[in-house]
Amino acid sequence: MSKSPATRAVARRERPLSPHLTVYRPPITMTMSIIHRITGGALYFGTLLVAAWLIAAASSQAAFDWVNWAFGSWLGRLVLFGYTWALMHHMLGGLRHLIWDTGAGLEKHIASRIAWATLAGSIVLTLLIWIAGYAARGAF
């Protein structure tokens, strides 16, 4: 920064601030867009876990047992639950964008409803998948 008196005076002067996150509430469509990008990144790492499971299944019984133990632990199940939710949320977000690509649902109130439906649908689908999985195993 320059050391001239004029520059220091301008720097000290209070400037108007743009809306900050503490003032501005992000719309649901923006939030879902950000989460869609985050879940896309999470799916990359989750797919590495699926690949590790397949590689373990192809290599030896001991490796497969270890991976199954890791995925069966509370932490492993939590990670798999999050992966399932990320997969469902990203899928429904993709459908939301597909709807928008047709030119439908671009009105503000409709886009907001679709965004909320994406969130609710991803939660419901994730719970249904896990309930069905536990029911198929006879864990209930």
From TrEMBL:
Gene3D superfamilies to which the protein is assigned, alphabetical: Fumarate reductase/succinate dehydrogenase, transmembrane subunit (1.20.1300.10)
Keyword Transmembrane helix: yes
Chief site of localization: membrane
Pfam families registered for this protein in UniProt: Sdh_cyt
Spans traversing the lipid bilayer: 42-62, 74-93, 114-136
Keywords (A to Z) from UniProt: Heme, Iron, Membrane, Metal-binding, Transmembrane, Transmembrane helix
Cofactor needs: heme
Subcellular location: Membrane
Recorded topology in the membrane: Multi-pass membrane protein
Top-level lineage group: Bacteria
Oligomer and partners: Part of an enzyme complex containing four subunits: a flavoprotein, an iron-sulfur protein, plus two membrane-anchoring proteins, SdhC and SdhD. The complex can form homotrimers.
Cross-referenced PANTHER family: SUCCINATE DEHYDROGENASE CYTOCHROME B560 SUBUNIT, SUCCINATE DEHYDROGENASE CYTOCHROME B560 SUBUNIT, MITOCHONDRIAL
Function: Membrane-anchoring subunit of succinate dehydrogenase (SDH).
Entry similarity comment: Belongs to the cytochrome b560 family.
Protein name: Succinate dehydrogenase cytochrome b556 subunit
Organism whose genome encodes this protein: Mesorhizobium vachelliae
Lineage of source species: Bacteria, Pseudomonadati, Pseudomonadota, Alphaproteobacteria, Hyphomicrobiales
